[in-house]
Amino acid sequence: MARTLLALFVLLTAWHPALAETVYKYVDENGNTVFTDEPRKGAEQMDVKPIPTVPALPTQPPQKQPVAAGPFSYNKILIVSPEDQHNFINETDPVVVQAAVSPNLRTADRVQLMLNGSPHGSPISSTAFTLDSLDRGEYQAQVRILDKDGKELGISDIVTFQVKRNSVNMPGQQKPAPKPKPKT
Length: 184
Description:
This protein is mainly beta. Helix content is about 10%, strand content about 40%.
């Protein structure tokens, strides 16, 4: 019987630290409450039970999905200005053709403006084109995206617009005077 009690006592004393930790609480000279595991004169002894925890489940690092190595393409290329069938009447300002591209234009890619089915100017790294002094008539605009080798990566739909001006050949009609440029 004595051996059983001794064994039980040893087991309980060995098991006790696993159940609780001793913490000391005191108030320092600045009035702050301090908790520590070191005994100190005037400190109140507190027994703190361990916090119940659940072991974490093992995780595997995320698997990288292979990226399909297909050719790059733009998923949206469209002319946002001018709108289809827009009329420019007696305007002296240049016509600005503005395109939208998604995803954004890559650094090495260029945009070629097509006007009435033919390239207008050289391909540029911008999606805006300024057309000065257009004669009256109907125009069809389209933009093509080209890679660094000149290979077409995508093309917009055609936008049709009209430039309407008074004829200088009609009696009493004069060509509109250009707007003066503001002084800076």
